[in-house]
Structures are given as C-alpha cells and as structure tokens.
Design brief:
This protein is an all-alpha fold. The protein contains three helices and no strands. Helix content is 80%, strand content 0%. The longest helix has 43 residues. The radius of gyration is 21 Å and the shape is rod-shaped.
C-alpha cells in the first residue's frame, strides 16, 4: 500500500511539474527566443548584408532546450519525492495520506 501511495504522489509530481511545466516552458522559450533573435538580427543588420546566412538556432541550442526540459522533469520528481510523497506513504490509513496532501 505504501508503494502505491508513493507512486501516486511521484506520478503527480512528474506529470504536473515535470512534463507539463517543462514541455510548456521549453516550447514557449523556444518560440519567444526565436522571435526575439530574429527581431534582434533584423534590427542590428538593417541595411547591410551582414546577417544574410545567419541561423538563429543551431544543434547545440536545441540540445540546451532538451537538457533544460529533462532537468525540469528530474527536479520536479526529486522535489515531490521526500516531503509530500515519502511522508504520505508512511501515514497509517491511505485515506489520511490523501487528506494530508
């Protein structure tokens, strides 16, 4: 029973904080970063041929975004593990564990 309660709390932390938060954050930061970079290049190179074959995102930038998303998932699982999940799984009846949440 303790393992099931611990699993429920960890799944919730992973889904809410990790997957939803990290994926939404990764997508929004990619979109806004791209828009800001394109606008900055347009302003900085207006009237010149300096920024003609310039790429905004290269392969390392995508790697940093994926790493940030993975780090967010790992952090939310670690933060959800001890305080809420571990203590709730050690309460006597499962109903009390769900009320303490």
């Amino acid at each position: 029973m303790r393992r099931e309660i611990l699993g429920m709390f960890l799944y919730e932390a992973m889904i809410l904080g990790g997957v939803i938060g990290s994926v939404v954050g990764g997508v929004l930061s990619t979109a806004f970063g791209y828009l800001i970079s394109v606008a900055a290049i347009e302003v900085a190179t207006a009237g010149t041929t300096f920024g003609e074959n310039f790429t905004v995102f290269d392969q390392s930038a995508v790697g940093f975004i994926v790493f940030g998303m993975a780090f967010g998932i790992g952090t939310s699982i670690a933060a959800g593990f001890y305080p809420p999940a571990w203590r709730a799984s050690h309460l006597a009846p499962p109903v009390d564990a769900m009320r303490q949440k």
